[in-house]
Each structure stands twice: as C-alpha cells, then as structure tokens.
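FAQ: What does a ligand-bound record look like?

Like this one, built around cobalamin:
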Amino acid sequence: MSLETIYDAVLRGDAPTTAADVQAALDSGASAEEVLHQACIPAMTEVGRLFEAGDKFIPEMMIAARAMQAAVNILQPLLMEAEVEVLGTVVLGTVVGDLHDIGKNLVGMMLEGAGFQIIDLGTDVAPETFVKVVQEHNPDVVAMSALLTTTMVSVTATMEALIEAGVRDKVKVIIGGAPITQEFADKVGADGFAGDAGGAPRVVKALLGVE
Ligand code: B12
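The answer part, i.e. the structure of the complex:
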C-alpha cells in the first residue's frame, strides 16, 4: 500500500480506507513516522491550503480530521516508545477559543512516549483553568497549542494569568501550533517552542535538564 493512497484517503476524508491503508502500509514495512510525516500530515496541510483557496469547506475539513484521527489511532502505539521512568508532568491544552486538537494530541503522544506524564485539558482551555491545574497538580511544564492567528492572544492571556497568580516561575512553558514561531515564543516569554510534535520531547527534556 503506497503512502500516496493514504494521502489521498485522508484528503478525501475516507476514514475506513485510511485505516485499512495505514495498516497495510505498516504490514508491508513502512514505519509509523513515514506514514505520519509523508502521508497524513501533508494531506492535512493540503486540506488547509484548499480551504484557504475556497476549494474545501468546514464539513470537509472535519471529515478529513476524522480520517486523520483514524490513522493516528493505529499509529499511536507505534510512535510511543515504551519508557518506564516518569521524567516529569506536563499540563497540555489548546488555548481558549481554539478547537483544533490533532497537533496537540500528537504532542501529548510524543511526550508520553518519551516518559512524561500528561494532564490533557483538551481544547478551548481558559487561562484560569491552566492556572487552577498548575496550582492543584504542581506540574513541571505547561504546554499550549494554538492553531489560529486569532487565538495567539489566548497564549498571551494565559501567560499573563500564570504571572498574575504567582505560578509562572514554578513551571516551564512551551508553546506550538501552525502560526506560532520562536519569535512569538520569545515575545510572550515562553521558555520553549517546537515546530512539530517530534521536537517537543527534546525541548522539554532540555528545559528540565533530564535525559
Ligand atoms: C482540521 C482543521 C480544522 C478542524 C479541526 C478538527 C480537530 N479535531 O482538530 C475544524 C473543522 C474543526 C477546524 C475549524 C476551524 N478552522 Co481549521 N484547520 C484544520 C486544518 C486543515 C488541519 C489542522 C491539523 O490538524 N493539522 C495537522 C496537525 C498534525 O498539525 P498542527 O496542528 O499544526 O500541529 C503540529 C505543529 O503545529 C506542532 N504543535 C501543535 N500544537 C503544539 C503545541 C506544542 C506545545 C508544541 C511544542 C507543538 C505543537 O506539532 C504538531 C505535530 O507536528 C488546518 C490547516 C493547517 N495547515 O494547519 C486548518 C486551519 C488551522 N483552520 C483554520 C480556520 C480559519 C478554521 C476556522 C476558523 C474555520 C471557520 N471559519 O469556522 C475554524 C475554527 C474553529 C475553532 N474555534 O478552533 C485556518 C487558520 C487560519 C489562521 N491563520 O488563523 C487553517 C490554517 C486553514 C487555512 N489554511 O485557512 N479546522
């Protein structure tokens, strides 16, 4: 089964075919990383491009996201290397106003696979919720995802809420998502940024000084 057929199935939003083709590709020797990075993520990027061009609409984006999720469900156990020692706790969420969670879920998977305990707050997470969870669970890291240029302000608002509550210095903060850059991370005073889920464990380990 070629990576191209998986790309096409995600682009069409055909979840059953995506699942079957992903399984077939793995059975014939493709790696989970290849399937994710060479077929699934490029397909979602193309969905976004077509949406922007007015050639795809929100229902089609949702259907494509469902097909992507079908692929991720199969790839998840393979992407997560089994590490036993818990290296730290990460509170993860998509910021308020933003419902995108595919990238966030991949970040959570990669961090969990690298040995971190994840407290996943889901999507549309208010600054005060991040604060409350930091106060209650004393995590090592807060990881925020934002996919819309309009929700980048929610990252700023969450940073301010952490400062206001006096907990900013107790945690490391990393941020990511399509519109987020290192420059923006520096501007809002985040400790780290990664452009993709694969980079997240590296950044968090470096911030916490663990290997
Ligand atoms: C699928 C999708 C949807 C789905 C989401 C389903 C879901 N469960 O997530 C639905 C249909 C719900 C949706 C809705 C909307 N969407 Co939308 N969506 C997309 C799409 C096509 C794919 C996103 C995705 O999953 N990509 C694949 C994942 C793997 O990539 P990723 O999210 O970028 O994550 C990676 C990195 O960014 C990074 N990362 C992500 N988070 C974090 C966090 C940390 C801490 C770190 C370190 C790294 C990291 O690691 C990830 C893996 O490598 C994008 C297009 C695109 N190119 O991104 C548009 C896109 C993001 N959407 C867009 C828009 C406009 C919308 C809507 C406003 C449309 C509307 N008019 O209603 C709504 C907003 C709803 C809301 N309030 O959130 C625009 C945003 C434009 C902008 N500049 O702001 C985009 C870019 C499409 C476009 N080209 O116009 N969307």
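Follow-up question: can I read anything off the structure? Yes, for example: The CA atoms of residues 131 and 162 lie 6 Å apart.
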